[in-house]
# Entry
Amino acid sequence: MKRFRRHGQESHRDRIKQELYGFNKTVEHGFPHQPSALVFSPSLQLLAIGTRSGAIKLYGAPGVEFMGLHDENAAVTQVHFLPQQVDLVTLLDDNSLHMWTLRAHQGVSELLEIGRFTLTGPPGAPPSVTRVTAVLTHSSGDLLFLGTEGGHVFVVEVPGFRELEESNISLENVTNSLPEDYGGRRSLEHVESLQENPVNPRQVLIGYGRGIMVIWDLERQSAIKHIPATQQLESVWWTEDGDHVLSSHSDGSYCRWMVAGEGTQSEQEKSEVPYGHFPCKAISKIIQLPTEQGPPFLFLSGGMPRASYGDRHCISVIHSKTHVALDFTSRIIDFFVIRDGPDYTGDPSALVVLVEEELVVIDLQTEGWPVIQTPYLVPLHCSAITCSHHVSAIPLKLWEKVLSAGALQNTHYSKKPWPITGGQNLSPDAPQRDLLLTGHEDGTVRFWDASGVCLYPMYKLSTAGVFLTDAEPNDNMNQCTEGEWPPFRKVGCFDPYSDDPRLGVQKIHLCKYSGYLTVAGTAGQILVLELNDEAAEQTVEATVADLLQGQEGFRWKGHTRLEVKEEPVMFPPGFQPFALVQCQPPAVVTALTLHSDWKLVTFGTSHGFGLYDYQQKSNVLVRCTLNPSDQLAMEGPLSRVKSIKKSLRQSFRRIRRSRVSLRKHHVNNAAKVQEANARLEAELAEMELAPVQRKIAARSSDDSFTGLVRMLYFADTFLSDSSHHTPSLWAGTNGGSVFAYQLRLPPVERRAEDPVTAHPAKEIQLMHRAPVVGIVVLDGLGSPLPEPLEVAHDLARSADMQGCHQLLVISEEQFKVFTLPKVSAKMKLKLTAIDGSRVRRVGVAWFGSSRSEDYGESGLTVLTNQGDLHVVSLPGVKLQVQYPCIRREDVSGIASCVFTKHGQGFYLISPSEFERFSLSARCVVEPRSLVEVPSQTPSTTLPRAQPDGPSVEHRNSTRDTDDVAVLQEIQKSLEGYQPTFLENNVKSALAGGKVLTNGD
Amino acid sequence: MNKNHRVPSNRTLGAVEVKSKFGAEFRRFSLDRFKPGRFDEFYRLLQHMHRIPNVDLLVGYADVHGDLLPINNDDNYRKAISVADPVLRLFLQRKEEADYSAFGLDSLTRPKKTVLAAMLLRPDANRKKPPVIISLPRDFRPVSSIIDVDILPETHRRVRLYKHGQEKPLGFYIRDGSSVRVTPQGLEKVPGIFISRMVPGGLAEGTGLLAVNDEVLEVNGIEVQAKSLDQVTDMMIANSHNLIVTVKPANQRNNIVRSGGGGAASRSSGHSSDSGTSFYGYSSPGTAVATTPAHIIQNFHPEELESDEDDEDLVVEVDGEAVPIPRASSASCTIPFIPRYVPHLDLRTTNEALASRNNAGSLGTLSTADRSLEGRSLEEDGTVITL
# Structure
């Protein structure tokens, strides 16, 4: 019986755990790493992006997001929506085709892979015969045309992927239909482009690599016209009226061909090299769209003069007399144009360009074609992210101030609403306002609205203005000068080149109640900023904190201190710096905390830590933690070794970028280069690991960087006796030491005059000498002490000062609770001794129960070096749950992790993407959206749609018929199209079960 | 004890010549070989002869092999008299400053005078290759032991290394490798962790229980299977104060019954799978020192090993009192900013550099105290035996 009861208790606790904790990776914020394909569905108003890692992401209206991942680890080279459906087809680098669909489940759509297919050629044929180079999703919605490297076009029925061999258009058939003098003996090369006649779905244009294009009649199975282009073909566009075909070529030219006539050969109407005279690079894509009144819009990608601007990534937009070459900072992947009108067939309204590092949307209907700010896919990495800081539950006042400061920075953006509107966002409104702050290499801090599914940029703070740097502010060489040709216009914000690496932001701390912000950087600079609605001109006073304290034998080999501008600087509305501390030696700041109630900032480096009173602008305390036997810390910056590796990697990347884009099939090439690159990196990594043996030796006090300050913490607690609580400062080092200082603050009325003093009170040396990564004081009830000013704003229960306080010291290896004021070990949780993992990141969080509104527990959220997430209970320090989260090899992912106060977290899955996860069962932010099957035919004026009814019928009835019958059926349906709304509706109602009814 | 071990050449003589040395002074006297009397009488006689009536003494004698052996009871007193050949050479030491390390036995392979010389010259504890020495039985402290012989398969060995806060490194390296396991599907190659290198003079090498290419199966009772090399490294380091490693020795020949030679060891446990303790090298028969190496711990449970040794975190309070954390043994330290603390032990740590900056305060001082602590605990606990 006893055993049963005990079991019952355990299951009770298990149930509570289930109500408190649950692990989910919920949403990826930011911009996909290495995008490789882009497509847009006008009928769904959804945008799809494929990446080199095999991910596929769909975006619609803000908040509508879907993500899928191919099992194969191959790059997505093409993505195509099936017209008028919620299905899409992806082509991977390994030549496999995949069918995805958005299926509604319990009112929310999910992206699911429902089929895969690889083209098989005749036995003995070389692989190039079936290597797919071009895909056309026919407007009928159930046919795929696959052009291959061998020059053949295969026809496949979807969604079941059934090959319709009789419909295939072989290279021989095409060659035979060409006049002798064009066919010649030379090969037509691969199929570069497949286009359907916008007004006649029976006609398909096949563009071959060598330049020749053939218009093929699907019904008659023969070529009806050919276009005798002679230059290497890059892309083809069939104008909306079906009368003209535009072709772009590798020599930077484009041609317009008349195809409406009766003859078998098309006339070239126009051939132009837009940036002519000298040799030009290829025009990789061409689009021409009409406007209701006036001339059409022409969009060209590439075509720049090879010698002078060959390295530019440009899209030219030509409309009437306006001609702009949009100059992007990274390689263009693809672009499309969104059109106005109920059927999305009106005037072009926005140009959407996917470049390698960001998505840029240009408003084509506002004068000057301004950029529309993206609500998602934001380039988090426009300068490399160096740190992040999350603040939960921002008071409305601060939120509005930050928003208004941000609005003043965004005046150059278009006022138009976001043009991509597909799907319905069903997520509930965010329960609170959360801010994510990211620090960047160029010295900026970006504020992101992290409350919901969309990580929306709010405000950008630059700290570089305080310092003198080499870069002149206005040496922008891309300033448009009058009459310049080509007419460049710089667009996009991705700019990975930092003027001065010392500006890099390393630590951020924001007090959400007072609006005080402190930002610390690579060169030991600590700025204190306050929020101001008005622009202000002021000088920032610098105070030097000598952390060496006369330590002898020290040689600093690292960078020098940043020079501060002596004249007053104009600061725009927003966060404005008013105080600056510069550490000497100017080592990277490794710990930073601000206490807005006491008006103190504490900071630490590898040499020691300091306490700064930002009201009186004076140092209160400086303490050296250096171990004289620690040579590394004595010499220079931490990142010395790493930076070599980093610069190596960057140069590889640069080489790769320059090689890419020479040829159209860059994805293949790029993938190859990338593969080689990855191999090289892996080899490098292996070299770094050598020797593959590990020494077993206990840590000693002589190890490197024992003095590095890892943790700084303010607490109002019982430090010296159990009757008086006083302000205190706690510091933890890499060598397992904890220093505690008792702080004496003058009374409020004398705060500006009397000095703040700090007295050493305690030192603890953990015997296991592991780095201290967290210090928390627990109040009499075992809860973590509230944040400064939290109680004053009635947002937290004040700390219990009756019971005994406890000190929780978290090292990389153990969680240890000590009593206060007399420090004696009370309990501990050993992590490393048990499972060999070490604590990398730790945070204090409140876990609300998903079952009852008023129950919750405090806990520690822990990320280990194995990439596992743990929750450790407070104050009992017991392991509650454990979930694998990040690959253990993903060191930068683990290092970038930041926890929220409500059991969520973020980590970088690539330089440009944050993965959001949740450990809380109650607090989950995830996309919930619904996409419905378009229920209308796209247009009644353009009879391109064909009835789906017969096809459905045929699918249901021809289970056992052979391919000939199927083909005939299709042809019949192609011939006699009679658009009926009813049938379409029937079809959409059947859409759910369609997959299964494929005759097979 | 084998009294007929060696026949003294002049046993017909009734008197035993005694040459007693205390400090720099010698005393000579004689005893009746056949009526030696009791040890306490002999002890008082020595005090009287040297005129040190109130000094506690440690009495040792040199036996025929040149080993310095203690005289502290009637048995070994009588033995000492019986083997005197013809001179009984005694060495007296003050108990409080006794150098236990001088006691020990030596095999005949070693030059006779080594131990004596070692003692007379006040041997440097830091010498690279200390002679094989042995302390008084009550001062034995294990540096390693084989545990759980009754529950482990014979092919495995569970070794416990006692670090005791000494400076000596654990002294081995581990690597990744693969081993062959028998599974229901037949033989299977699985990744494993192996000892790759032993540091000469390190604790691990000294025990003789671990060897290169031994496969590491467990660390402190936790299987290392499916753990990465780095994880296992971290586990070992985190447990370094009390490390228990279960290995599958590369050399399986030592697993079988050990007979004869290891008399002392096999006596302690009649179990056939016992492969000896840290003392198994002990092979001199008929020695006067009775060693009882009963450090074989049976039925090992990981939780029992939850040693508090790593709880000896140092806490320094502001009032300058050296306050050890409760449960800590003898941890003591001073606050760094009050240079009152003077290491009161004859430490040979390299503190010259640190001493100069005591006033600056900070970790430097802390580590001074820290090392002094380690040094003292070493002395208090007596000499650690290394074989």
